[in-house]
Every structure is written in C-alpha cells, then in structure tokens.
Amino acid sequence: MSKVDTIKERIPLIELKGITKAFPGVVANDDIHLTLYEGEIHALVGENGAGKTTLMKILYGEYRADKGEIFVRGKPVRITNPSVAVALGIGMVHQHFMLVPGLTVLENIILGSEPVKNAVLDIKSARQKIEDIMQKNAMPVDLDTYVEDLPVGLQQRVEILKLLYRGAETLVLDEPTAVLTPQETTELFKTLKALKEQGRGIIFISHKLNEVLEIADRITVIRRGRVVGEMPIEEASKEKIAEMMVGKPVVLEVENPRIEVGGHCLVLKDVVYEENGVKKLDEISFSVHAGEIYGVAGVEGNGQEELLKIISGEIYPSAGEIYITDKVVNRISPMGRRQLGIGHIPADRQAQGLFIDMPLYINVVVGWHWRKEFQKRGILDYKVMRSTASTVVKNFDVRTPSVEVPASALSGGNQQKFVVGREISFDPTLLLAAYPTRGVDVGATEFIYKQLIDEKVRGKAILLISADLEEILALSDRIGVLYRGKIIKEFRREEATPEIIGLYMLGVKEE
Amino acid sequence: MTQEQVKVQPKSMEWKYRLIESLAPVLGFLFAMVVMMVTVQFIGESPIKALSAILTFSFSQAGIAYIVSQSIPLIIAGEANAIAFQAGVFNIGVEGQYLFGALCAGVAGAYLNLPTYIHIPVVILAGMLGGMIWILIPALLKIYKGVHEVISTIMMNQIASAVILYLVNGPFNGVRGVSQSFNLRTPYMEPTAVFPSLHNVINSVTGLFGFKFPHYVAVDLSWLIALIVVVVLWFLLFKTSLGLRIRWIGQNISASVYAGVDVKKTLLVTMLISGAIAGLVGLQEVAYISKFFTPNITRGLGFTGLAVALLARNNPLGVIASGLLFSFLSRAGYGLQMYTKVPNSLIGIISGLMILSVVVIDQILRRYARTLRRREVG
User: Fold this and answer.
1) For labelling alongside A463, which of A122, A133, A210, B8 has CA 20 to 30 A away?
2) ipTM higher than 0.90?
3) Whole-angstrom Cα distance, residue B291 to residue B286?
4) B145 close to A (CB below 8 A)
C-alpha cells in the first residue's frame, strides 16, 4: 500500500490518455491509458498483434493517434515524428537494431548528433561524454571496435548508449531479450536496474513472463488493442498475466506423453567440425530416435549454429560420421538431405526461413520445391502451391487475409506458425527445430508446442535446439547439454532440473 | 476455431496493393516529363513547342517505325540485364558481351558456307556463344573467388573493345588497302547468313490498321528473336522451378541455402543465360543492316539496357514497354534538336532522372503498400 502511495506522489514521466488508432479493418489501439513514472520499469505485455508496437510507435512519433493525448512531465505534447520524441527525452530500441555494422561503436553512438567544434568533428569530447555515461552506468564497450564484430548483447548495449547519449529519460525497449543469451539478459537487467535507480523510466515490451516478473515494477496487459489489466508486480503471477493476455487459461505445462521409441533417425558419431583451426564441434556423439524429442540445451554460441548446419548439410564434418536413417550423409548436399526427409525450422525465420517479399504460396515450397507435386518437368504448378499454402494457413491458424500476400505482411508469430506448419506438413522423418518459439507470443508458443508434441507422438524424430531452458524441459524426452562444441552430459527428462542443467550449461560441472 | 478466424478476416485488398506497387514507372516517367518541361522553359524555349516537336517527330509514320525497330536491340539488352538482376547480379558487361557476340556472329556469317536454314541459326548461336564466353570469366571469378561482377565485367568491357579491334584488324579483316583504318570491318556475310526481312509479314498485320513499316526501317528476323527472348525469359522466371530458384538467390542468399538451392550452380546458369542473350543484341545491325561486323558498331546499348531493365523492374514483359520508351526518348531527342534550340543531351539527363525517380518512387510505393498490408493484417 505504502509503495503505491509513493509512486503516486512522483511525477508521471509519460502519460498516454485515451489513445485510439484504427487501421482499415482493425482497431489497433482502443482508448489506451498508460502511465510511466520516474524510476520505474513498466512492462507492456500482450500477444503478437495486440497493439503494443503500434502504441509505442505512436509514443515515438512514427504513427499519429486518431484520438487521445500524450503528456510528458505533465505537459501535453504533440509528437509528430521521432526527432520530436528524441527532443522530449524519449528513446526507443527496436527489436531489429538500427546500427551501422561497418562503423565503430563510437561512430554509431554519435551518428546523427555529432558534436562539432569550430566546424570540425569533436571526437574527443564525444568520447569523454560517452566514457562518462559508460562508467556511470557500468556498461563498458570498447568504443573503437566495429559494430559488426560485437556479439548481439553488446550491440544492444550500444543502442542503449545511443539513447543515453541523446539524453533519453524514457527508454522504450521492444522485446529486448528476444535475441539475447541468458547471460546477456542478466547483464541487460543489471543495466536496466541501474538506469531505473537514476530516475529514468523504462517501458519494457516482452513475451517472456518470467523476465517480466523479474524486472518490472508494474505490468500493463493489452489484448486486442485494449488494456485488460494493470497491476503492480506484487499482485502479478505468471498464470494471471498469461490468462489476461490470451483471454483464457493457458496450460503452460504442456502435456507431453513419453511414447515407445522406434529406430535411429539421426546419429552423430564423433563428429568434428574445424574452422580456422578452432574445433567448433568437438567429437559430438548422440542419436535421436523416432518418437522422441531430443533437446539440445546450452548457452548460445557453444556450437548450436554449427550443429544445425552440419546436420542440414550447409557444412560438412571434418571428421566423424552423420547418419540419417542408417545412411551416411557426410557429403550429401542440403537438398539431398531434405530429400531423405528432413524438415527444418530455421533459427531465423526472416533471414532464412522465408522470402519476405514473396507471397505465401511461394514461401510454402521453400525447401520443398523439388517435390513432385509442385512441378512437372521443371514447370511449377501454382494451383497445387496455392492449395498447399491454404492448407498450411488453415491447419496452423496463420492469420492472414489470403495466401497472396507477401510474408512480410504477417506478424512475427504468424510467420513462425507458417514456417512450422510448412516444415511439418510434408511429413518429414526428422525435424530440426531451432528456437521454434523465439519472439512468439504465449498463445502461438503453446500452439507450436502442441504441434511438435503431436509430431513426436506420430513417430517423428525431433531435434530441438533452444536457448529457453523451460522450453527444452517442457518438450524434450532426452536432453543433451552443449558446451564448447561438446555434448558434455545427457539427461532423461525425469532426471533433469533447470538448476542441474544450468550448472552444466555454464561449464561449472563437467563429466 | 480455425475456420472462424479465417472468416473474420476482411476481404483482401491485395490487388490494390499490387497496383500501387506497379505505378512507379508511370509516375517516374510523368515526373521526368514535368522536369523536362520546366527545364525547357529555363532554356528559353516554349514547352509547348518542344512538346509538339517531340510528338510530330516521334509519331509520324516513319517516327513510329523507327521507334519500334530501334527498340529491338534495347529490349534484348534489357532482358539480358533483367535476368541477371533477378538473380541479384549486376551484369555491367552486357556491352562487352554483345560486342564479342556480334563479332562471332559476323565471323560465322562470313567464313562459313552453309545452306541458309542452317547458316542463320549458326549465326544466332555464334552470337549467343560469344556472349557466354565473355561472361564466363566474370561468372567463374564470382562463384569461386568472390570477385564482384561489377568490377570484372567492366574490365571485360574494356578488353572486349581491344580484342575486337585486334581481331578485325588481323585475322578477320575484310578490307585491305588504304581505307582500312576508316572502314575497318569483317568480310561481308554470305547471303545465306543474312537475316531475312519481315516487312511483308509485319505489314500484312499492321496494314489492317492502316500502318506500314517503310522499307528503310529494319524489320527483320531480330524482331522474332526479341519476341522469343521475352516470352522464354518470362516463362523461365515465373513458371519454372529454375526461375523460382533464380529469383530466390536474387532475394536472399541465406534463405536459398536453407531451401537447399545450389547457389553456385544457379548463379552460373543465370549468368550464362544473361551472356547468351547479350550476345544477341548486335545481331540486327550485323546480320541485317550492315551485313558485316565493324568495331564502329553502335555502342552503349548494354548500358541503356541496364536502364531499360531497371525501369521495367526486371520484368521480362515490362522490358518491352520500357525498351519502346527509351527508343522513343532517343527519337524525341533528335526531334528537339531539329526543331527547337533545346540540346539533344537534355534527353540523356531526362533518361537518367527518370531512372532515378522510378527507383525512389518504387521504394516509396513498396513501403506504402507494405504499411497498408500490415494494417490490414493488424
């Protein structure tokens, strides 16, 4: 009670009152109220397409609201474009970073507001200013590194430094943890807490309820463009938020029966992959049977990418053997392996899984275009492609006006459902599922989980690679921990707990 | 539940978005025209007079005939560039490829003795082969060594200029004597290799509308070749599996690799097709108009072809329209020069401006359509 009172006494940094924004056919924001105080982390949660991003774009001046008012420190403002927002101390970190890879960290930070002294770029004072900011917030980055050489976590830090350099008091972070490893997330949260202590306000958009509960002071839940609940963190629980978000109780504990396993579908035997003398994969051995999900747990960057590529055929092993249904495939091309029956949900749907500017009826054959039903003597059968796309859209609940629209018109969650649906639809014997629910909302996540489990029950072998430990535990029958290019430990689901797996993931325990 | 959600969706406005996306060339052209009129005013000439000069000079019987005829090499060059662009390849080397292809065709026409129904196809194939040979080195360099094709094809253009000079001066010289350096050329082609005129065929059709192509305008087999190239390319790109793969690698290499496309092979095939088409560009001039190859052959068609393809947004059917447009523009330039004091070079500026504005407007419209789509999906 007392805490609520103290919050009320503080000045609201940002106040959104009655924001309404309609697009043809849909009301994206319907009379939304949102208040952000100084020194507060305010989580904005909701399903994909609920209207969070629209709301933030209105705050950041990328869209204009049809109705409603915005107050900054109690004064009504009209935010007509992002530079007005920046001038008002509002900064936004987009989900996809807005950095120039070929410039250094320093150059990226000052880009757009370069300090000038006597008509000459004043790098020295900029450097000083940035170093002060970094020191004050304990966010060190090497200013002379090129951004393209930085891991994602540090790139995000650069984005935040950019905002602080421009004097942002309100920071909007759009799904900041979607691309981060658990360690990087921890680091980010430390930073956010430090920023909060200085009195800045942070709007944190996320799907991951655990994180929301860990970091936020208050939570606003949006569903179908309306605020369905606002609560201080003390009153929130995972189940409660999830229910508000989707409007029905979500079973986050999915039912996952263990079934009788069949023969080997995928076997790796002492597989080594060397790149420039570094062993990215180091004598990896494991197997996946028909009717089981094998989860690969591990901190990102421990060989997941190479493991996927070596199984899908994008790279060939330096030593060891890979079998797909008893056939050695070491030197078989990606196409040849797909023809053996590999389905592959890629790690990045936008960069790999879809041709974003092409319509869905073309995207439905990505990776499967060689199949007989899609072509006769090399000539495409668009009729079959369209009907296949419609089937995927229908069976996998992809929300789209038609299969004629380009993939870019779909929201992230629907793109992912489409990719998952496509890869399952062609009845693969082995399914590679890489981060299958990354950046996807609770409802879609649950849906995708069910689909994967259904496939397993139907006797498919599934290799699951994920950074989300909960996901691994919910889905896998067996779990291998990948650490520095090695599977250092295997668990059956029953023996695994997040704590123990965590210790192996971080290399604290080794066999 | 699923069916219910499908029903709730509003009726798609997809056709409308497509229309918006395809407006760029039209708007770009209109914009360029407006700028031209303003510029003409600045030069101190009446825009109305300039416009009427253009119209009367271009849309007389002879004007139209020239525009159509001279669009043929532009269309073929545009197609050579368009297919490369579709795969994300910048074939700046169409210029060199058609020079070398035209030389090969001229040589095949002059030095071989064959019955006409074999000789003409051989001449055509020689042109295509020449173009393919000239793109092979840049293609291999790109695929195996990662050398960017813009650099290697530009260099190949320079080499082509030198090589054809050497070959026509040396082994394939058709004139000996004093006038050699002025009339440098290969020997005349055998009558069996010369392209037949299609005046009768074409005029019997256009005659129905009261239009005849005069005899001094080239109406020949290259028209048919251009038509076949357009149709085949359109079919290849949009109806076949290979075409789909070509468009995929043009859009996103890593998604193509994920999809199991053999990117190197597809790139090689695409570049060879582009080179083969480029080898056809010079055939109208070599095998019909002059009946020999000369280093003084019309230059620059490869570069205009880049613009033709860009304006058509690399659509093989659109290339016909944009080829005609560029042919019209060049005619319009002469019209201006003859009847007004506006310099011909203004047309060059206007063409450039048109390309620039089409590219910019295209991006704006695409983004606008994307926003509309997103709003619809919600």
Assistant:
1) A210
2) no
3) 5
4) no
In this structure, is the dihedral angle defined by the CA atoms of residues B16, B19, B21 and B23, taken in order, positive or negative? negative
Name the nearest CA neighbour of A163 among A216, A103, A97, A102.
A97
Query: Cα separation of A110 and B268, whole Å?
Result: 43
Pick from B11, B241, B373: CB nearest A380: B241
pLDDT tens digits for B328-350?
Answer: 988 888 888 888 888 878 888 88
Judge whether A296 and A307 are in contact, CB under 8 Å. Answer: yes
| Contact between A150 and A105 (Cβ < 8 Å) | yes
Here the tokens at position B307 are: 């613009």
Mean pLDDT (whole number) for A40-69: 86
Pair A494, A485: CB distance under 8 Å: no
More confident position, B268 or A348: B268
Q: Which residues of A29-50 are buried (b: 16+ CB within 10 A; e: fewer)?
A: bbebebbbbbbbbbbbbbbbbb
Contact A60, A221 (CB under 8 A): no
Beta bridge partners of A295: A464, A479
Domains of chain B (ranges, CATH numbers): 24-42+58-363 (1.10.3470)
Cα separation, A293 vs B269, in Å, equals: 41
Closest partner residue to A408 (CB to CB) among B10, B258, B370 is B370
Count of Cβ atoms closer than 10 Å to residue B225 Cβ: 21
Backbone angles phi, psi at A361, to 5 degrees: -70, -15
Question: In chain A, how many H helices and how many E strands?
Answer: 17, 24
CB count within 10 Å of CB A493 equals 18
Q: Are A366 and A391 in contact (CB under 8 A)?
A: no
Contacts of B242 in chain A (CB under 8 A): 378
DSSP label of A249: -
Per-residue pLDDT reduced to its tens digit, B157-198: 999 999 999 999 888 888 766 555 667 889 999 999 999 999
Q: Which domains does chain A have, with CATH numbers?
A: 2-246 (3.40.50.300), 265-341+432-442+463-511 (3.40.50.300), 348-427 (no CATH)
